[in-house]
Each structure stands twice: as C-alpha cells, then as structure tokens.
Design goal:
binds nicotinamide-adenine-dinucleotide, 2 domains, binds magnesium ion, 392 residues, alpha/beta, Rossmann fold
C-alpha cells in the first residue's frame, strides 16, 4: 500500500489523479489533499478518499473547510499555509506526491517533496521552468524519483531507451514534442486580437484548468514544455523539435540515430500518464477508452507558426539565454494570462507583456532559490506596470 499526497487536488489534474487512485484502493491510500478556493469540493474529496490532512492557503479558508468537513462528520485535519503544504509533501508517512498546483505557487511544496526523496509525479511544469537547475540538483541530491506527468514528457519518457536516463544519450538524435495547436491554430493574428477568455479556454481536445488552457491557445504551453524537456531529459533547445498535431493522439516522439522514431499514442486523457506515473515501473488500468485508430482514421502534422504564435519564439530564446530568463518568462506569462482572464488586456497582448518584460531584464544565473524568487518578483512587478500602461 502506497500513501499519496495530492498537491492541487481540486484542479483538473488533481481530480483525474483521485479518479485513478479510487480505481486502485488496494494499492494507494490518500494521506493529504490540498486546494485553494474550491473548499466544498475539497471537503467532498477528503471524505470520499479518507484523507488524513487537508491544506488550504489561509486561516479563513481553513475555518470554512473545517465547517464543511464537520457537517459530514469527517475526521480530516485541516492545516493552512505554505509550510503546511511542505509538511504534507515531505511527511515520513508519504510515498508519492502528485505536484498539481498551477504556476509558481507549486515550486516550494514540490521542492519540499523532492528534498524528502519522494516519488514525484510532476504536472507543475512551472516549477521546472522557474528553477530547473536548483530543482534537478535537489532531485540528484535526494535520490527522489521524478516522473513526468505532462503528457508529452510522459510520452518521451516511455519512448526513451533505459540507458538514456542513466547518462548515455548516444542513441537518441532528437525529441519531438507534439502540440495540438490549441483553439486558435487556424486563426489570423487579427482574429486573435479580439479572442475572449471563453474562446481561449475552449480547448479542442483537452479539458484543463484555465491557465494552461490559455497557455495552449498562445502556445506558451509548448514553450514552457520545451524548457521542461531540457531539464528532464538534459537536452539543449535545438535538440527538441515542436510538431503541431491537431488530433492530440501522438503524444510525443523520440528520434533515434538509426532513423527509428518511437512514439507513444493514446486518447487525450490525462489519466493515462497519471496511471503510468503512479504505477511505474509497472502498469495499472486507468479507465481510459481504448484508442480506436480506424475510427480516428487520419492523423495530421504541421510545422508550428512562430509568427502567429510569438510565445514559441520568446520561450525558445529564454531557453537559449538560460539563467533566470525562463523564470522571468514564466512570471511575466502568469501575470499576463491572469490579466487576460480578467479581461484587462487582449489575447495578443499576453506575448507583448512577456516580450517587454524580458527585454528590460538583465539576466543572471540564479545561485539560490531566493535569487529565483527575486527574479520572479521583479519580473511580476515589471509586467504589472506594463499592463497598467496597456489599460490606459
Ligand atoms: P487547475 O487550475 O485545474 O488546478 C490548479 C490546482 O492548484 C487547484 O487545486 C488549485 O486549488 C491549486 N492552486 C491554485 N493556486 C494555488 C495557490 N496559490 N496555492 C496553492 N494551491 C493553488 O490546473 P490544472 O489544469 O490541473 O494544472 C495543474 C498543473 O498541471 C499546471 O502546472 C499545469 O501546467 C499542469 N498540467 C496540466 C494538464 C491538464 O491536462 N490539466 C496537463 C499537463 C500539465
Ligand atoms: Mg502538455
């Protein structure tokens, strides 16, 4: 029996994780669940999964959550704050931590789980983008097992030869990250200028949280994933190719030196990579429908358009620049996406805010977590000021 903490259990990945866990009650038990705003949902999850602990951000939410749990005679103990998130991530009673908080808020608790040597199922790509060097150093030092849940990286992980992660990369020529192209794949720049949050969040194939949905629409998601891949698989930005594949069935590919290309396929349902990560190196069922290729009939592929989707270029350049450039890119993007979701800026202004934040920045190598957080905070302040100017 393995015990799991789900950081961000009320989100899209969190819910899918609990769905898979519930299918295998004889193998996995829930230690702690965490959430931010959806307190009634969190209370329901705690009762349904028998969580020992629940963690929320502040004392008010904790008070409300205790009320919801007590109403149903639940016994889950409620804690709050970042330190409590870290505690339930590194507790000696925990074997597996699903890191599914969205954005920079996921970094500190995920790192706590890494430092405690847990098996980490990493959905929170932003933590690697922000602090890749520090994060991977911590993985090496603690001997924790890091398994990618992002579907593309999970696919690549499944297609790589065993020798690769042990350090022998000689068999592999390049990694190919597939991208759906998002809801605006065929839109002109002019059309994208007036795109609404509802349109941006209506992803054609995947049902996800709002932030990653907007990132998919701008293709910043693929840019963040390029940086994520570089850290996970020790590649340079030019060893990772991006391939637009609108059906989201081929989740990513590995090209070998002999001309072979291995791909992982499946229906677009995150329960597959989640089940893979949970059971690795074994396999468990996930309730994902069998892939019916005859029914899908056609798979198509095209090159990404870096002119209509400037976030791809910005992320590539940040990956090449290295140092704190990816942290700045990520912070600016989080601020800009939030402003877009709140209808304060237009869709195409997301890339503009990110570009202008990056261009005013003097990049440096962040030697510590504090330095990363400092770059993150400075980038956020610049982005906030840029957004104020755009609103005038
Ligand atoms: P979501 O918005 O649906 O859920 C986010 C979760 O994080 C919620 O539980 C929320 O309560 C919690 N949270 C938000 N802000 C917080 C804060 N400040 N402090 C503590 N908790 C906070 O997001 P999602 O779609 O589930 O994505 C989660 C992560 O997984 C993201 O990093 C995303 O990039 C990654 N991911 C998601 C998918 C997907 O299909 N949804 C696929 C690949 C990767
Ligand atoms: Mg992905």
């Amino acid at each position: 029996m393995q015990s799991i903490t789900v950081l961000g259990s009320t989100g899209s990945i969190g819910e899918s994780t609990l769905d898979v866990v519930a299918q295998h009650r004889n193998q996995y038990s829930v230690f702690a669940l965490t959430g931010n705003r959806q307190l009634e949902k969190l209370a329901r999850q705690c009762l349904q999964h028998g969580a020992q602990y629940a963690v929320v951000n502040d004392a008010d939410s904790a008070h409300q959550l205790r009320g919801f749990i007590a109403d149903q005679n639940g016994t889950t103990e409620v804690l709050h704050g970042v330190e409590a998130l870290c505690e339930v991530a590194r507790s000696a009673q925990v074997d597996i931590v699903m890191a599914a908080i969205v954005g920079a808020a996921g970094l500190i608790p995920t790192l706590a789980a890494v430092q405690a040597g847990k098996k980490i199922l990493l959905a929170n790509k932003e933590s690697l983008v922000m602090a890749g060097a520090i994060f991977m150093q911590a993985v090496n030092n603690s001997n924790s097992t890091l398994l990618p849940i992002d579907s593309e990286h999970n696919a690549i992980f499944q297609c790589l030869p065993a020798s690769y992660l042990d350090g022998d990369q000689s068999a592999v020529k390049k990694l190919i990250l597939s991208a759906s192209g998002g809801p605006f794949r065929t839109w002109t720049m002019e059309q994208m200028k007036s795109a609404t949050p509802e349109q941006a969040c209506a992803h054609p194939n995947w049902s996800m949280g709002n932030k990653i949905s907007v990132d998919s629409a701008s293709m910043m998601n693929k840019g963040l994933e390029l940086i994520e891949a570089n850290w996970l698989f020790k590649t340079s930005p030019d060893q990772v190719e991006i391939l637009v594949h609108p059906q989201s069935v081929v989740h990513s590919l590995v090209q070998y030196v002999d001309g072979s290309v291995l791909a992982q396929l499946g229906n677009p349902d995150m329960r597959t990579p989640i089940a893979h990560g949970l059971a690795w190196p074994e396999r468990i069922t996930s309730s994902v429908a069998d892939l019916d290729l005859a029914d899908i009939a056609q798979l198509s592929f095209e090159k990404p358009d870096r002119v209509r989707f400037p976030c791809l270029r910005l992320a590539f350049d940040a990956a090449v620049a290295g140092g704190d450039a990816p942290a700045v890119l990520n912070a600016a993007n989080e601020i800009a996406v939030e402003a877009f979701l709140n209808r304060r800026i237009g869709f195409t202004e997301i890339a503009q805010v990110v570009e202008n934040t990056l261009s005013g920045f003097d990049f440096r190598e962040p030697g510590s977590l504090e330095a990363v957080q400092d770059s993150d905070a400075r980038a956020r302040a610049i982005s906030v000021a840029l957004i104020k100017q755009l609103e005038i």
